[in-house]
Design brief:
Layout lengths: L2 H6 L17 E3 L8 E5 L13 E2 L9 E15 L2 E8 L1 H7 L3 H7 L8
Antiparallel strand pairs: 1-4, 2-4, 3-4, 4-5
C-alpha cells in the first residue's frame, strides 16, 4: 500500500475517536509571540532541556546517546467556509509551511518573524 491508501484505510471512526480525516483549509499564523522551534531528542522527537548537539540520555526513549536537535513547531489556525480550528504543525510540515529549517529558526531568533 502507498501512504495515501494507508491513511484512507484508517478513516476516522466517530465511535472510537481514532483515525484520520482530510481537512482542506487555509492555515494562518495568528500569534507571532511563540517559539517556532524546540530542542528535541534526535531519535524520539520529544522535548529536551539539553543544549544543541549535546549528547544525553533521553528520559522518553531511554537512549543513552541521544543528541539534542532543533525541531520546527508552529501553532496555526485552520480556516474554511465552515469555521476554524487550532492546530500545531511539527517537524518537516512546519519547516515547509514556514519555509525555514528548524536550525535556521533557532539561529535567527526573532529576525525570522519579519519574513513570515
Amino acid at each position: 500500500m502507498n501512504k495515501t491508501s494507508d491513511l484512507m484505510s484508517k478513516r476516522f471512526n466517530p465511535l472510537t475517536g481514532h483515525g484520520y480525516i482530510w481537512v482542506y483549509a487555509r492555515a494562518y499564523v495568528r500569534v507571532f509571540k511563540q517559539a517556532f522551534w524546540y530542542m528535541s531528542c534526535n531519535t524520539y522527537n520529544k522535548v529536551s532541556s539539553a543544549d544543541f548537539n549535546e549528547t544525553y540520555e533521553c528520559v522518553f526513549c531511554k537512549f543513552s546517546h541521544a543528541v539534542a536537535v532543533p525541531r520546527a513547531r508552529v501553532y496555526v489556525e485552520l480556516e474554511d467556509l465552515t469555521g476554524s480550528l487550532s492546530g500545531t504543525m511539527i517537524g518537516e510540515t512546519a519547516e515547509t509551511f514556514l519555509q525555514y529549517t528548524a536550525k535556521q529558526l533557532m539561529d535567527s531568533g526573532s529576525e525570522v518573524l519579519d519574513k513570515i
